[in-house]
């Protein structure tokens, strides 16, 4: 790892990404385990850029929401004990009512049912929950809650991120992953400028748009990520969706916006092994 020039890692504590490298209960309940965990990074001269607990704490299925909320709170506590100021996560997505079983991601205003659902979600679920959690995080010394703008969740673009920030405070910021913006038709450069001052963490991940498939079917694509040849877009290693000139501009714009922190490599390129993608 050190030979590649890697200086920091983002460590998952649970929820969707799993907890393969960080057993949160063990670390919270054992000072010795916490000490050993810290030493593993110290002896390699690698820092932890952020803890991540990407889940859906607003899931309408209570058992799922409860588990994801518990992991999220424990992650704030663990970050405090490790001296880490950033936690990366998703906003979550509620259902359409208190009796829902599955999340309902609203993507259009009509029929009016959808507008009513969206209003209810934000007013009754999203804002109250994150106001409370932002306060809890700040009490634990976490001033940078890094939301990944991800379709399928209520925060999926700069507008929705800023809406939540306005409601829940300045601890709310972006875990800026351009791969989820490309296929929505968002220019990541413009998005960076819009979010100047609240970019807290950055993922290095690319997206390749298939011009033919997109011309036929558009960008909303529910086919399996493994059906690469038929999808409108797929996630790629940096440089395999957009060329070096874009990424130079991207890095330069980050600096112009005052961001001087890590680029966290997220490998979801189904055409390369993790090691191949990391090396490239």
Automatic annotation (TrEMBL):
InterPro entries in UniProt: IolE/XylAMocC-like, Xyl_isomerase-like_sf, Xyl_isomerase-like_TIM-brl
SUPFAM superfamilies in alphabetical order: Xylose isomerase-like
Start and end residues of each Xylose isomerase-like TIM barrel domain: 2-270
Name the record gives this protein: Xylose isomerase-like TIM barrel domain-containing protein
Protein source organism: marine sediment metagenome
């Amino acid at each position: 790892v050190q030979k590649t020039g890697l200086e920091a890692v983002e460590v998952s504590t649970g929820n969707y990404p799993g907890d393969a490298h960080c057993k949160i209960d063990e670390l919270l309940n054992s000072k010795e385990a916490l000490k050993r965990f810290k030493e593993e990074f110290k002896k390699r001269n690698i820092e932890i850029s952020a803890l991540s607990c990407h889940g859906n704490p607003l899931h309408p299925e209570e058992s799922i929401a409860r588990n994801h909320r518990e992991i999220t709170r424990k992650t704030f506590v663990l970050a405090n004990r490790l001296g880490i100021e950033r936690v990366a996560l998703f906003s979550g997505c509620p259902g359409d009512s208190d009796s829902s079983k599955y999340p309902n991601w609203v993507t259009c205003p009509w029929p009016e049912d959808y507008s009513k659902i969206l209003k209810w979600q934000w007013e009754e679920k999203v804002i109250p929950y994150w106001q409370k959690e932002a306060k809890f995080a700040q009490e634990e010394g976490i001033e940078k809650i890094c939301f990944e703008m991800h379709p399928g969740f209520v925060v999926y673009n700069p507008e929705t991120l800023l809406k939540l920030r306005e409601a829940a405070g300045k601890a709310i910021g972006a875990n800026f992953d351009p791969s989820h913006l490309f296929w929505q038709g968002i220019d990541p450069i413009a998005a960076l400028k819009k979010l100047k001052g609240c970019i807290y963490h950055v993922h290095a991940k690319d997206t390749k748009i298939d011009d033919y498939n997109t011309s036929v079917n558009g960008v909303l694509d529910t086919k399996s990520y493994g059906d690469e040849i038929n999808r409108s877009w797929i996630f790629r290693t940096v440089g395999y969706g957009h060329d070096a000139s874009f990424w130079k501009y991207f890095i330069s714009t980050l600096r112009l916006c005052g961001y001087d922190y890590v680029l966290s490599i997220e490998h979801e390129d189904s055409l390369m092994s993790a090691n191949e993608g990391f090396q490239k």
